Amino acid sequence: MTQRAAAFDRVIAGFRRSRVLVVGDVMLDRFLMGDVHRINPEAPVPILRVAGERLAPGGAANAAANLASLGAATVVAGYVGNDGPGRRLQALVRGRGIRAALVPCARPTITKVRAVARGQQLLRLDYEDDRAVGRRLEAKLLAAVKGLGRRFDAVLISDYDKGVVTERLVELCLERVPIVTVDPAPPHRDLYRGVTMLTPNVKEAAALLGIDIRTDAELARAGAELVGRLEAHVLVTRGERGMTLFRRDGGRLHLPTVAKEVIDVTGAGDTVIAVATLALAGGAPLERALVLANLAAGLVVSKSGTATVSPEELRAAARRA
Q1: SS3 letters for the chain?
Q2: Angle at 92 between CA 89 and CA 95, to 5 degrees
Q3: 18, 125, 148, 235: which has the fewest Cβ within 10 Å?
Q4: If 0-12 CB within 10 Å is exposed, 13-18 middle and 19+ buried, where does residue 5 land?
Q5: Residue 24 and residue 162: Cα distance in Å, rounded?
Q6: Model confidence pLDDT, tens digit, residues 46-102
Q7: Nearest to residue 280, comparing CAs of 232, 241, 219, 230?
Q8: Per-residue pLDDT at 262
Q9: How far apart are CA 114 and CA 45, in angstroms?
Q10: CB 253, CB 247: distance < 8 Å
Q11: What is the mean pLDDT of the chain?
Q12: pLDDT of residue 300
């Protein structure tokens, strides 16, 4: 084994000793799978003959599932509806060994229904209420997070702008935990000042600044501006072009994609931030944490639907790299 592979092995072995809290917009991902044999005579759309269904944790719950699959002690906090999807989501979370601190509410559980034929997504239906939550409901979530204590090595904020992430919630996380990472929602940009790292994709990075990003030079300027405004590391995920880190100290690191085959990118961003957060929680250097996150992204996009990676898969990928 090379010295580099041994270093990655030590980071991965340490995942089981880390405790991570995920706070954000939890969702239920529902996949309807089948085949298309004809076009609907009522409208020019395909008819999916449904042959099976799969449920998976989505949104912040998928980030938590990624952490748990790698061995971390994981807790997820957010809102869940008093409805069937909410009960199914909580059962899925518990079934993966994740402790849930989910506040029940009158809002429907966010549910994304994807119709898939032979690996190709045909349509997505979203059930959600993304209005801002009231102060009373926010207070319940803050109390739930406070009740968990200060026993975490890191907090991962998974923000889809569905009502969970507020200024008071981010402040609470920053007060209690040394490492706070954020999968951001552009409207909340100024809430994230002082976090450890943000992980926007290119479109989100542009929206965070209200600009267009078309070239590497424009990306470089945007990354530097985000670092300056938010005083945080910024990791921009770029799909088939890999990912680029803009450091607080002005440094930059580009990691080309390692994906051999791309089947489904659903939830890949959750995998990136989960692995990076977990590695940082265990004390890994930033660059090493991001190399592992990049390897994990290459693994998860080769799987169908919302997926996770195991320590064994990640260890094998690190040894091949």
Answers
A1: CCHHHHHHHHHHHHHHHCEEEEEECEEEEEEEEEEEEEECCCCCCEEEEEEEEEEEEEEHHHHHHHHHHCCCEEEEEEEEECCHHHHHHHHHHHHCCCEEEEEEECCCCCEEEEEEECCEEEEEEEECCCCCCCHHHHHHHHHHHHHCCCCCCEEEEECCCCCCCCHHHHHHHHHHCCCEEEECCHHHHHHHCCCCEECCEHHHHHHHHCCCCCCHHHHHHHHHHHHHHHCCEEEEECHHHCEEEECCCCCEEEECCCCCCCCCCCCHHHHHHHHHHHHHHCCCCHHHHHHHHHHHHHHHCCCCCCCCCCHHHHHHHHHHC
A2: 150
A3: 125
A4: middle
A5: 9
A6: 999 999 999 999 999 999 999 999 999 999 999 999 999 999 999 999 999 999 999
A7: 232
A8: 65
A9: 15
A10: yes
A11: 93
A12: 84
**For the CA atoms of the chain, what is the radius of gyration?**
19
At 5, the amino acid letter reads A
Q: Which token pair is 262? A: 């791309």
Asked if 251 contacts 291 with a C-beta cutoff of 8 angstroms, the reply is: no
Provide the whole-model pTM: 0.93
Contact between 242 and 257 (Cβ < 8 Å): yes
Beta bridge partner(s), residue 233: 197
Q: What percent of the chain has pLDDT over 70?
A: 96
- Name the nearest CA neighbour of 74 among 22, 24, 28, 26: 22
Q: How far is residue 46's CA from residue 193's CA, in Å, rounded to a whole number?
A: 46
Mean pLDDT of 245-251: 95
* HSE-up of residue 195 (Cα within 13 Å, Cβ side): 29
Query: How many CB atoms are closer than 10 A to CB 21?
Result: 27
List, edge to edge, every strand of the sheet that includes 111-117: 46-59, 26-39, 111-117, 120-127
pLDDT at 267: 67
Task: Return the bridge partners of 180, or none.
Answer: 155
Q: Which residues are part of the catalytic machinery?
A: 270
Report all structural domains of the chain as residue ranges with CATH numbers, in order of start.
3-26+58-109+132-320 (3.40.1190.20)
Structure tokens belonging to residue 235: 């990791």
C-alpha distances (whole Å) from 230 to each of 6, 90, 169 are: 34, 34, 17
Cross-strand partners of 12: none
